[in-house]
Amino acid sequence: MTVQEEWRKLRKAGPDMERGVLAAAFCEWTERFTAEDEGEDGGCFRHWRRLPEEVRQAKLRQAVTGGIPEMGPGPQIELALLTALFHVLRKGRCIISLAAISDRVLIRAAVRRFQDLDSVVLKSVGMLGEHTSLKFSDCLKAQIVIIDHYIFASLLRSNPEQLPGGLPVFFVEIDSCLYCNRLIFYERSVPRASGLIYKSELPVPAWAGNPAIFDAVQEMKKLGLELCGSYSYTDSFTAGETSKLLRDRVIGRVRGSRAIGFSAFTYRTSALRHAAVVRDVQKCEGNAIIVCLTETNVKEMQEALRKSGVEFTVTTVADDVGTALAMAKPERRRVIIYAGMPTSQTAPPPERMPGELFLAECYLTDNYQAKMIAMARRLMDCQQSPRLYYSLEDRLLAIYAQEGGFGRLFDVIEFTERYDPWRQIRRVLAKAMLRKLNRLRATLLDDNAPIPSMPLTGRGASRPERRPQASRGAQIEALCFCGSGKPFKECHGKRK
């Protein structure tokens, strides 16, 4: 019996089979289905086949039975496609939601591959998948739809009738989708930013009912959507908050990753921080990715590297990082300043060269840092643990520095460093300051203080809807995502 004939047999019997029995038969069938791509450069499941068989089966079985597997820098898109096929057997349809740029070549290959599988139609909506101009309304008859999470969240608000109850939704990087981008901030029916609640405790926050703030996760629960997904790496705090959101909605739990250890260094001024980064980059023998988040930090880092004579490139596009590293040669390394969002699902280079990751700024949440570690390990053969460098002049630190009493710790650092060439005291106190920073934020940023995490102007714009006259012009009063402490409307949300 051919793979296609086995698929037709499963599809015919799937709706009447118990989930556990169907899952066992499906996992066995996928081994034969994906084996056709083993060793092929253009096969959509070639990276999946590089995993050991027992790992493949364990991760897939966990996903199709309702768990949330941790994939590290491994192939989440391939896992999402296979899990979507399983849900096609069960319920005839599945949505895959993306929060970051993914391997477009792989998705195009999957479209062609699924056409041979009893005409399973796979379509993509938005910029993060196959980069198409399709709308979700154009894909209502497709069995599998890959969609930008920001468009999906806007769809929940504008056209919830297009999402029937019980529809399975697979979230690639589930913590990024449901925790970091849980909220959508609107102004005059236009999505301006996505946002999060740093630490949630209340079932109904004070802003509930405000038309300017839309809670996408609560809307999914109201519609009765079946939530599932996977993640690369995440920290323990974000894992706990995500599991709290998914309580009574999924069988599995999101757990903190053990493989995201890093060294931390803290400095009084940004200039000292840049000097330390440049010094360590010069010592690095392989490729280097330097992560900068704010425009000011990018410019200062460029100037510091230029003065030191280090050749570098700057990009905000994740695909460009992979392309630059693929072109690197052993005798000529690449130094890349990356100022974009982390993604663990870009196309990896044919051969991973040695390299190191330098985080020259703190992310808004620690799970973004974990995603950046996964991205670096996907693109490079990382020789050492990542290094995080931050200063009290960073916007994210400045608003907490006085309350946290961080300034006096530098007196201890500067005194002991005369006798400590390995900077052990600086490392220990840097980690202690980060722990105190997280405790402060968990105390201050509760349900009634939602914070924007990413501007959405020009992303997933929903169809403008009519609203009562009294609710028009609602203002976004949450703090800005950059950590300046100013309201979003007075900072990055200000119209230019």
Strand content: 5-15%
CATH topology-level fold name of the largest domain: Rossmann fold
Distance from first to last alpha carbon: 63 Å
Instruction: Sum up the overall morphology in one term.
Output: globular
DSSP strand count: 16
CATH architectural designation of the largest domain: 3-Layer(aba) Sandwich
Regions with little confidence, pLDDT below 50 for 5+ residues: 458-477
Helix content: 25-40%
- Tell me, rounded to a whole number, the average pLDDT: 86
The Rg value, from CA coordinates, equals 23 Å
Please give the domain count. 2
Number of helices: 17
Major β-sheet profile: 7 strands, parallel
CATH class identity of the largest domain = Alpha Beta
Q: Which structural category fits the helices and strands?
A: alpha/beta
Q: Care to describe what's here?
A:
The structure is a single chain. The protein is 40% helix and 15% strand. It has 496 residues and is α/β, with parallel strands linked by helices. The chain folds into two domains: 3-245, Rossmann fold, CATH 3.40.50; 263-391, P-loop containing nucleotide triphosphate hydrolases (Rossmann fold, 3-Layer(aba) Sandwich), CATH 3.40.50.300. The strands form three sheets. Strands 9, 10, 11, 12, 13, 14 and 15 form a seven-stranded parallel β-sheet that branches. Strands 2-3-1-4-8 form a five-stranded parallel β-sheet, with helices on both faces. Strand 13, helix 14 and strand 14 form a beta-alpha-beta unit. The protein is globular and about 75 Å long. It starts with a helix and ends in a 41-residue tail after the last strand.
